[in-house]
Automatic annotation (TrEMBL):
Domain called FAD-dependent oxidoreductase 2 FAD-binding: residue spans: 70-506
Keyword check for Flavoprotein: yes
Cofactors demanded by this protein: FAD
Upper lineage: Bacteria, Pseudomonadati, Pseudomonadota, Betaproteobacteria, Burkholderiales
Record bears the keyword Flavoprotein: yes
The entry's keywords: FAD, Flavoprotein, Oxidoreductase
Family designation: Belongs to the FAD-dependent oxidoreductase 2 family. FRD/SDH subfamily.
Single GO term (MF): oxidoreductase activity
Descriptive protein name: Flavocytochrome c
Coiled-coil portions: none
NCBIfam families listed in its UniProt record: flavo_cyto_c
UniProt GO BP: steroid metabolic process
Pfam families in the cross-refs: FAD_binding_2
InterPro entries associated with the record: FAD-dep_OxRdtase_2_FAD-bd (IPR003953), FAD-oxidoreductase_2 (IPR050315), FAD/NAD-bd_sf (IPR036188), Flavocytochrome_c (IPR010960), Succ_DH/fumarate_Rdtase_cat_sf (IPR027477)
Length: 539
């Protein structure tokens, strides 16, 4: 039986805890909690700067000699650090993590921290009914059935195991929510800096060496292809040297959102979209893997996400108020999409609108409810309650005046919104695009009728890439024939095959932990080669 034909998987019986006020934090429903989160983020940010840029013994060599470790990991984001911890827990030996940027974390500290997982103990404690099969179907549907089914199942199972382990260590989500493309509340919302700093501290406590400012530039093959990858070449402070990996090399270098040449090659429409990926997301791991024969998958699966305030600088400029009942219109005042769809699909439709200009229309009832539902939306829209302005937001006591303030054609806009409101009131759905829920089948859609009314100018933005190195369900890098490249693994945003032709919320973050865990365990299981093991051309 193939993976895609497996029967529905029910939630395993997991030990239940009373997590109310303990394991699960309060949501950001009040200012006190919001301030607490800000303090934690600041503390975590300060902690992250304490990691030394280089190990002292390397900086003393004019011409650094080759070094020997058991597992070498390129990238110190969630995937790389998870791999390091899991490899060391499996007694891999000497482990080295190399990060080319001055600070660790990568995109894992810039994201919102939504980790999608099914059948977790936290879901059970909250009374959320879910199945692995439902999660599988959500991913396959969003990916237009182009995802690798075995890789999807690996994400579901390993991701849950990694999440349960993290929670058992005291790192817990503050809520579990619905996210883009999810049919069930399964997005476990963590504080990204808190997670990264926990992983860093745990790795260091286990004896893992972490070096920042150290760029892996090349994978080095062993003397024969059957023996796989010998190690890597690293550049730091103007010096270049080789490092042997006696067990394996793991690539956790992220995507290529900051590499304009690669974006232009695979998704030229996104060149003008704001890019919010980590500075180090330049495709290094993908390039190096391809150089040693790795197959690349889904390389045109690049999407923007919807919706951001104009000129966004971080994920904190991303609103989900359309999942709370707002409707999207273009500069002509016309709707153009079912707003309950996943945010990458909405973004692709938005880019096609005249001048790619779009707006979100909502009323006071939607605003107040959305601020209770999502932390970032509270941060975006709460200034209104203090009489402050929000960038790109027009408001008025009538829809007509709000449209005029936003510069939209008033008559066409009013006709569109009245049609929407009338259909929602009479039918519970609208006819033009088929919207019948707030978010992917969840929540009752409501008419916009409670003043004041708001019209917010928004744009799509580029959050990451959903393609890369083809992997097996064990996180092994695969060649063009689907065979594992010996002793080479990949995890996180650098992989392909998971998302297919699309993506859903929380799977990108989950993939870092799920495949970081698998890569670390599998790398540690590789037989240790002796230090005389050769490479092409010698050291």
């Amino acid at each position: 039986m193939s993976s895609s034909e497996r029967p529905p998987a029910r939630c395993a019986s997991l030990s239940s805890r009373n997590i109310s006020g303990k394991c699960l934090r309060r949501s950001y429903a009040d200012e006190e909690t919001a301030n607490m989160i800000r303090r934690r983020l600041l503390k975590a940010a300060l902690l992250s700067t304490s990691l030394p840029a280089v190990a002292q013994n390397n900086s003393l060599h004019e011409e650094p000699p080759a070094e020997i470790f058991d597992v070498v990991i390129a990238g110190a984001g969630a995937a790389g650090l998870t791999a390091a911890v899991m490899a060391q827990k499996a007694s891999a030996g000497r482990i080295l993590v190399l990060e080319k940027e001055p600070l660790i974390g990568g995109t894992s500290v810039l994201c919102e921290g939504n980790w999608s997982a099914s059948c977790t103990s936290i879901q059970a404690d909250l009374g959320i009914k879910d199945t692995d099969d439902a999660f599988f179907q959500d991913i396959m549907r969003a990916g237009d059935d182009k995802s690798d089914p075995d890789v999807v199942w690996a994400l579901i199972r390993s991701g849950r195991t990694a999440l349960e382990w993290l929670v058992s260590q005291g790192v817990t989500p503050y809520t579990v929510s619905v996210n883009s493309g999810l049919s069930v509340r399964r997005a476990h919302c963590f504080l990204p800096f808190e997670v990264i700093n926990f992983l860093r501290r745990r790795a260091e406590s286990l004896g893992v060496s972490i070096r920042t400012g150290s760029e892996v530039t090349k994978l080095i093959r062993a003397e024969t292809s059957e023996k796989g990858i010998w190690g890597i070449e690293v550049k730091q402070a103007g010096k270049t040297w080789k490092i042997q990996a006696r067990r394996a090399v793991i690539l956790a270098t992220g995507g290529f959102g900051r590499n304009r040449e690669m974006v232009a090659r695979y998704a030229p429409k996104l060149l003008n979209a704001p890019c919010l990926t980590a500075p180090g997301s330049t495709g290094d791991g993908i390039r190096m893997a391809a150089e040693v024969g790795a197959n690349l998958r889904d390389m045109d699966n690049l999407h923007a996400a919807y919706a951001f305030l104009s000129h966004p600088e971080s994920i904190n400029a991303m609103t989900h108020i359309f999942y709370g009942g707002a409707v999207a219109v273009n500069k002509l005042g016309r709707r153009f999409v079912d707003e309950s769809l996943d945010y990458t699909t909405i973004a692709s439709k938005a880019i096609e609108q005249p001048d790619a200009a779009t707006f979100l229309v909502f009323d006071e009832r939607v605003r107040l409810q959305q601020m209770k539902s999502r932390a970032v939306d509270r941060l975006i829209f709460s200034p209104i309650d203090k009489g402050l302005s929000v960038h790109g937001l027009a408001s008025a006591e009538t829809l007509k005046d709000a449209a005029a303030a936003a510069g939209l054609p008033v008559e066409d806009f009013i006709t569109e919104i009245e049609k929407y409101n009338n259909e929602i009131s009479a039918l519970g759905r609208e006819a033009s695009f088929g919207r019948s829920s707030l978010d992917f089948g969840i929540g009752k859609v409501i008419p916009l009728e409670v003043p004041p009314f708001y019209i917010l100018s928004v744009v799509p933005a580029f959050l990451g890439t959903y393609c890369g190195i083809a992997i097996s369900p064990k996180a092994e890098a695969l060649d063009a024939n689907g065979r594992p490249i010996p002793r080479l693994y990949a995890a996180g945003e650098v992989i392909g095959g998971l998302h297919g032709r699309g993506s859903i919320g929380g799977t990108h973050y989950a993939a870092a932990f799920a495949f970081g865990r698998l890569a670390g365990i599998e790398a540690a299981a590789q037989p240790r080669r002796n230090t005389n093991f050769g490479l092409k051309g010698g050291i």
